Amino acid sequence: MLFQALSITPHVSQVSYIGIDGLLFSYYAHGTEFFGLYSNSSISVNSSFRNSTAYTWYIQRADSETGKLSGEVITSPPLALINESWFQEAMNSNNGYASLGIQWNSAQNLLFLSSAKSSWGKLALGYRRW
Hints:
This protein has helices spanning 2-8, 85-92; strands spanning 12-19, 24-30, 33-39, 57-62, 69-76, 97-102, 110-118, 121-128. It is mainly beta. A hairpin with a 7-residue loop joins β6 and β7 (110-118).
């Protein structure tokens, strides 16, 4: 479902699921290519992110038709996401939340982020500048 949202929704260049336990899975577009990004473990939204050295992000290419991840796995230190105010506000909001943020790609493009909360976490769509 995440990949379908990314591949068919105009102007969306990133779609992410962030669980209340800190687990993360995301698809993002970089140019004409798609990538999947995921975490290896959970992290508390109230924890000290900079001290969480065990928290790692993994990135793989995603098939442009199916979203299936394949190929070399690249490890990446996570962005300073947990301490950013938009993340805290989005996770604590009982409703949807909108803000500006950055894309997971290496260019870290500016995105308009729109999120919705459920009992299991947040689903966020990232819209690139038009």
